[in-house]
Specification:
The complex is a heterodimer of chains A (324) and B (533). Chain A has 324 residues and is α+β, with helices and mostly antiparallel strands. Helix content of chain A is 32%, strand content 19%. Chain A has a five-stranded mixed β-sheet, with no helix packed on it. In chain A, a hairpin with a 5-residue loop joins strand 2 and strand 3. Chain B has 15 helices and no strands. Chain B is mainly α and 533 residues long. The longest helix of chain B has 37 residues. Chain B is 67% helix and 0% strand. Classes of the chains: A alpha+beta (324), B mainly alpha (533).
């Protein structure tokens, strides 16, 4: 991930309630919100004002009794008046939000499809031409995009606040989510279905580019990092492939063991065995992490088999060697 | 010290010693014991709430690791839901007041009533055991496949909820039979007070919905123990099926929480307005309408879960329908105040708090029922804020209102109105500081159940956390003046508020079987016209 570009601020963009609108859905969804919002303010203020007026007007006094006129304790027409109009109002809201929901559900035929896999705790993306990214989704502006999503472990949920779209990501089943970006920039992606210790760090970015830049980006992928020295490539992958979610480089224990001083150290496993961390051990720990789990940690790391090239694996190993 | 004459003896003094409490069949003593356990649970759940909000004071680690934080929010949710809010009003205030409002000597099955208390305590023991033996980190919703694979003690926590379900079923069954069979002469259905009506509607949900939770939890436990593969896709199961099963109970359960609260509000607004409630029948029937529709809206928790879009549309439609009977009640309460004789005492102050917070909770519920808007707001802090406005701003505030309303009857002592007002002000300010902020966080995109968060959310999180401290001070003040009232409070008259339902015709505190003579009911429940005082 290019760290020089930061995601657009959610708090700092848009209005008091919503982040900026960056998809075709946003305007209508925000419109429903503000319709209910202002309607609610009017009704709440009305109810409270009536209550306040009655308290002021009909406070208990020594020589004044409440009015027990039976006509004041039941009035069919009045009760119908505050049953039927609210019913019609909410039915109106129902119809509008229903139409938007159908639009959210049915993607155009020509949408560009991108495969998404959610894993504890990162997002992996794969394009039709075989390009794979981790933690960063790059899409062209003004083009319908459809994500075909599944999970490798537990439930996750894919959420782009600026686009107002969200869909759960489920193991052993595909779910779909589509959007039509209207604005270039880089936006925040969250996981919104609780998935364990790394849930709040299961973040990603979506970068929306002009079509020409997108094409250029797509063509340039796959050769990425060839010009970098191996240890610098590994350093870059440490954050961009989400290793940093679980492994520290400063010696502190996170969900997984720290990388500091890892290379050449003796590792003790939960099954009682042990080994010295050499190149083969580190490679195996990345591609088949469940095979040798270090004592004190859980078997939670997903396999990166097929997600990293040989050169990227070499890069990570060289980077770990530098962390003494 | 007690004499056996009705004038000086009451249910508290009629017998002494721990056996007389642990083996009692008196619905009032059982209600008081429930009240003690429920308040303790609230304290424990509140302690976890303060801890998790403290951790969220800034991003990253302050006190706890991610796993500990996840366990803390799970314990907060599970304790508040299963040990506090579901039993809160029915098991404590309901147990005490329902037979008295009805004019009965006790509930229909006093032994079953005592059993429900013991089952509750047993279930609570399981939850506490889970707490100390590697607390569950699944969230109180126990979603699969996370709950079928995590290494924490999910089984003891879910078995706790399973056992607590039986306690809830026993109470519900008891109330239904009591209302059908133990009404004294003249107590027709439409002469029953509205709190009793609301408990009847609640009891129907308790009896019909709770078994579904029990079955779901058993399937989850079996999946963890022997891998039967109902929910875990790795075993060929379907995780979305769990969500359907879970919410088939847990959405009606929301109405187990709010219906009795509405019942208390109906009692309080009429008592402190000194007038018959406006639209009695409509309020009574709207409780039943809510109870019935509540069974058909569970799918609104699954708008982004991958359920069929057609199902989602129907669930959205039905969710809007359920909002109407709730709105009708609010309008009728305000209309009751018109030309009344309004007495601004502590229970009525909490009614006003309820009125505001239930409006906020209700209208944000309309937002969340909107299919397309829910897609954006689902699983964000907006939802957290919404249900806290309904569950705390609604149910808990109504519970406190009812506690202050019936306190003189239950304990026989008056409390300090001044300190009650001070606590009320702290709770109002603290609650709205804590939770209104979370609406803003949520609609800006802040997801729920996040241990860590983006720096840009920090100011609002810090403000929300500081609100919890104001809220906690309010509850502490309340604990002090209520305990003080037990020790030093002036004796309560039989009917301090001039209310007209039957429980106020007994002495304060009541005698063991409530009334000296079986009451004969000759009029509607809120008849303020007569010369009685």
């Amino acid at each position: 991930m290019d760290k020089t570009i930061v995601n657009e601020s959610l708090m700092g963009s848009g209005n008091a309630w919503f982040p900026s609108q960056a998809s075709t859905f946003a305007a209508s969804i925000d419109g429903i919100f503000f319709f209910i919002y202002y309607g609610s303010i009017i009704l709440t203020v009305g109810i409270l004002a009536a209550a306040a007026y009655f308290i002021w007007k009909f406070r208990k006094k020594v020589h004044q009794q409440a009015d027990h006129n039976p006509a004041l304790t039941h009035n069919t027409w009045l009760e119908l008046a505050w049953t039927i109009p609210p019913l019609l109002l909410v039915m109106g809201i129902f119809v509008v939000s229903f139409k938007d929901y159908i639009a959210l559900s049915i993607a155009p035929q020509n949408a560009t499809q991108i495969k998404v896999v959610g894993k504890k705790w990162f997002w992996a993306f794969e394009y039709a031409n075989g390009v794979k990214t981790l933690g960063e989704l790059v899409v062209p502006v003004n083009t319908p995009i459809q994500l075909l999503m599944s999970s490798d472990d537990v439930l996750h949920s894919f959420y782009i606040p600026n686009f107002r779209v969200k869909r759960d990501v489920i193991p052993n089943r595909y779910t779909k989510l589509w959007f039509h970006p209207t604005k270039t920039g880089q936006f925040q992606i969250f996981c919104t279905e609780y998935c364990g210790d790394g849930h709040s760090d299961m973040l990603a970015s979506i970068r929306v580019l002009p079509m020409a830049d997108y094409q250029k980006w797509l063509a340039s992928q796959g050769s990425g990092g060839d010009d970098l020295p191996l240890d610098e490539l590994g350093q870059k992958l440490y954050t961009s492939k989400a290793c940093a979610t679980c492994h520290s480089i400063d010696g502190s224990a996170k969900v997984g063991p720290t990388w500091k001083g890892l290379f050449g150290s003796k590792r003790s496993f939960v099954d009682g065995g042990s080994a010295v961390a050499d190149e083969n051990y580190i490679r195996e720990s990345i591609t088949v992490p469940a095979k040798h789990v270090v004592a004190g940690y859980g078997p939670v790391m997903p396999s990166y088999q097929g997600l990293l090239s040989d050169r990227e694996l070499d890069g990570l190993i060289e980077y770990i060697k530098t962390l003494k | 010290m007690s004499e056996s004459t009705p004038a000086t003896s009451n249910y508290l003094t009629v017998s002494t010693g721990w056996r007389s409490w642990l083996l009692t069949l008196d619905h009032k003593r059982i209600g008081i014991m429930y009240l003690v356990f429920i308040v303790l649970s609230f304290g424990l759940g509140g302690f976890f709430a303060l801890a998790l909000r403290l951790e969220l004071l800034n991003p990253g680690k302050l006190l706890f690791t991610a796993k500990q934080y996840n366990q803390i929010f799970t314990l907060h949710g599970a304790i508040m839901t299963f040990l506090f809010i579901i039993p809160s009003i029915p098991a404590s205030l309901g147990n005490f007041i329902l037979p008295m409002q009805l004019g009965a000597k006790d509930v229909a099955f006093p032994r079953l009533n005592l059993a429900s208390l013991y089952v509750y305590v047993l279930g609570a023991c399981f939850c506490v055991y889970s707490m100390i033996a590697g607390a569950a980190d699944t969230g109180w919703t126990f979603y699969t496949p996370y709950s079928s694979t995590t290494s924490t003690s999910v089984i003891s926590m879910t078995l706790g909820a399973f056992i607590l379900g039986f306690s809830s079923i026993f109470t519900g069954l008891n109330f239904i039979v009591t209302i059908h069979k133990l009404r004294p002469p003249g107590m027709t259905w439409f002469r029953m007070p509205l709190f009793t009506w609301s408990l009847y509607a609640t009891a129907i949900i308790q009896v019909l919905a709770t078994p579904v939770l029990g079955i779901t939890i058993l399937l989850l436990v079996l999946e963890r123990l022997v891998g039967i593969g109902i929910f875990d896709p790795a075993l060929g199961g379907d995780p979305v099926l769990f969500q359907h099963f879970f919410w088939f109970y847990s959405h009606p359960a929301v109405y187990i929480m709010i219906l009795p609260a509405m019942g208390i509000m109906s009692e309080v607004v009429t008592a402190f307005s000194g007038r018959k409630i406006f639209g009695y029948r409509l309020i009574a029937l709207s409780s039943l309408a809510i109870a019935i529709i509540s069974f058909l809206v569970w799918g609104h928790h699954l708008f982004v879960s991958g359920q069929s879009d057609y199902a989602a549309v129907i669930f959205s439609f039905l969710t809007y329908l359920v909002s109407i009977p709730s709105a009708v009640k609010v309008f009728n309460w305000v209309a009751t105040m018109y030309r009344g004789s309004i007495d601004l005492r502590a229970p009525f102050l909490y009614f006003l708090a309820f009125l505001f917070m239930f409006c906020v909770g209700g209208f944000t519920g309309v937002m969340l029922a909107s299919l397309s808007l829910d897609v954006h707001l689902h699983d964000t802090y907006f939802v957290v804020a919404h249900f806290h406005y309904v569950m705390v701003g609604g149910t808990t505030i109504a519970f406190i209102s009812g506690l202050h309303y019936w306190w003189p009857k239950m304990i026989g002592k008056m409390y300090s109105e001044f300190w009650a007002f001070v606590a009320w002000a702290f709770i109002m300010v603290g609650f709205n500081m804590t939770f209104f902020t979370q609406f803003l966080l949520g609609s800006k995109g802040m997801p729920r159940r996040y241990y860590n968060y983006l720096d840009q959310f920090q100011p609002l999180h810090a403000f929300s956390t500081s609100g919890t401290w104001v809220l906690a001070i309010g509850f502490l003040i309340m604990a002090f003046y209520l305990i003080d009232s037990i020790l030093n409070g002036p004796p309560a008259p039989d009917n301090p508020w001039g209310a007209r339902t039957l429980e106020w015709q007994s002495q304060s505190p009541p005698i063991t079987e409530n009334f000296v003579d079986t009451p004969v009911i000759a009029s509607e429940p809120y008849d303020y016209t007569g010369a009685r005082s």
